[in-house]
């Protein structure tokens, strides 16, 4: 009897623990989204503006001697590159404008931007994303698409990308596929790689699941499956 009660108590604690962990994880994600917004604004509004002013000064100022003018010109070019990087970082950090644009247009924007940066064709069929989804699920799919596309830009060197969404039964599947370098999916990832793990954790919080199919030099396909109602 005592033993039974102990086990029962243990199970309750386990369940409570899980509920607490989920609540904490949700809160963490909300804080993360707030921080992204703040950082994105600071980068864009403060740093971005100041860098633009410095670049303007540097492009206009002339020292009069050939050597010094060359150095000023190089400094101006470096500041231009720094400005572009700050702009990209602010763009990547900015919160999803899902309320205004909707999930479909937001994901289309992400894919279009990456493909134009890489100069490659992008196949899209995202009609299914126009279906209503719980807000948390929509934001999760947006962040998954963002990370998967960022990974393609950073690691894949593809010649084409495809981003599609389909509904089957009561689940939505977002598929992001590239024909790039792929990777060894079984290899242990070091501590510096948070993207895939983050996608997996965020999807689990909305009852979803991440599947990655990949092989070296054979491209990568990322599937994000979520329930339509959560
Ligand atoms: N589409 C892809 N094509 C080729 N390799 C990929 C692709 N996606 C992920 N990888 C490989 O998987 C690794 C882990 O990806 P993950 O997103 O977890 O980390 P990361 O991109 O290296 O760093 P982080 O996302 O934390 O900035 C990458 O370092 C890369 O080697
Ligand atoms: Mg990544």
Automatic annotation (TrEMBL):
CDD domains: HATPase_UhpB-NarQ-NarX-like. It comes from the Bacteria. One of its GO terms (molecular function) is phosphorelay sensor kinase activity. Gene3D superfamilies: 1.20.5.1930, Histidine kinase-like ATPase, C-terminal domain. Residues 38-230 form the Histidine kinase domain. Keywords: Kinase, Transferase, Two-component regulatory system. GO terms for cellular component: membrane. The keyword Hydrolase does not apply. Pfam families: HATPase_c, HisKA_3. The keyword Translocase does not apply. PANTHER family: NITRATE/NITRITE SENSOR PROTEIN NARX-RELATED. This is Histidine kinase domain-containing protein. It comes from Mesorhizobium atlanticum.
